Amino acid sequence: MKAAVFFPGIGYHCDKPLLYYSRKLAQECGYEETIALSYTYDGGNIRGNEEKMQQAFESLYEQAEKSLSAIDFDKYDEILFVAKSVGTIIASAYAEKHSIRCRQILYTPLKYTYNFVHRDAIAFIGTSDPWSIVPEV
User: Fold this and answer.
1) 4 Cβ partners below 8 Å, 6+ apart?
2) Closest CA to 53 of 66, 64, 43
């Protein structure tokens, strides 16, 4: 069995194009279970503010943990994490903490995403992403 988990960004939910069409492609590629996470953060603008960014990460990560707590990842032969923006940090942290062997697709990853080990991942970022300092990423 194959499962794909989708980690949105702040303000970029799983029904927006990158994650919506990624879910459709995953289903076409035989992922029987697709899990689209939904979490909220109302702490205001966090861009450029390290403290608020950390608070947002902690809040969103906790929500992801709760949403995924009932999932038995051991029953899957293949796992795919697809993430956008701050979701790339959450997906990477979750995979590392829970020792989940998964492939990852990282859309517009933030620099903190690379604080985690990625064994099998691909990242996509534009050269003018306002959330990222592209050379750092």
Assistant:
1) 23, 26, 31, 33, 34, 35, 79, 80, 81, 82
2) 43
Name the phi and psi angles at 7, rounded to 5. -110, 105
Q: What are phi and psi of 3, to 5 degrees?
A: -130, 145
Distance CA 9, CA 2 (A): 23
pLDDT tens-digit series, residues 75-127: 999 999 999 999 999 999 999 999 999 999 999 998 889 999 898 999 998 88
To which residue do tokens 């790339």 refer?
88
* C-alpha distances out from residue 84 to 1, 37, 69, 71, 77, Å: 24, 11, 21, 21, 24
Q: How many helices (H) and strands (E) does the chain have?
A: 3, 5
Q: What is this structure's pTM?
A: 0.92
